[in-house]
Amino acid sequence: MPRxxxxxxxxxxxxxxxxxxxxxxxxxxxxxxxxVITLFNGEGGEHSATILRMGRSDVAVRVDSHxxxxxxxxxxxxxxxxxxxxxxMDWLVEKATELGVASLQPLHTAHSVLRLSGERATKKQAxxxxxxxxxxxxxxxxxxxxxxxxxxxxxxxxxxxxxxxxAPVLRCVLSLAEGSQPLATVLASQPANAPVVFLSGPEGGLxxxxxxxxxxxxxxxxxxxxxxxxxxxxxxxxxxxxxx
Length: 244
Known about the structure:
By secondary structure, the chain is α/β, with parallel strands linked by helices. Helix content is about 30%, strand content about 25%.
């Protein structure tokens, strides 16, 4: 059944017009009145709806029922990464969404090739958010991850709050520093549902000073093993270990 993100209140028995993006998608698929679709708004579960009317640019539906289905990982994982170049960031956002990431923080780092600012950064953020939404529609997820505004690593580290004893958050950085522990070992010492923030560098990794700054900010240095992974592969490997 076709699935569409519909970020508006969904109440059983009500009729509504789909948001523009969802309406265009319904029209592209050439669905017809009487057809049944699935809607989700990120507030939990998903809704079954019937198409009532197809206009030139609008689609009206009736919300018929709610299914409290969730398929999110028990552990919320937040990825902060130095942005990989070219189209790899699009691919990373898509695959991370499929794997259940809670949020993504694109970062400028010393070794970053991709540099964004001003309107270009805003447009890229909106584009990546759309990629995440489409990935959620495809994979069956009901919670669209937030793609946060592009930030400088140093400023982001300063703004990241310290761990709250009442709600501990494990913060890890992919590091070459002496004493780095396997990520799986670090995760095994934490409650299965404890949230994780994972920091990873771009091509070339974090610089030594950035690595040291992350550790000074309370990030635990971790490793994913002896192999050299691409930036986007490392982020996804960490996500899989932490979330699943």
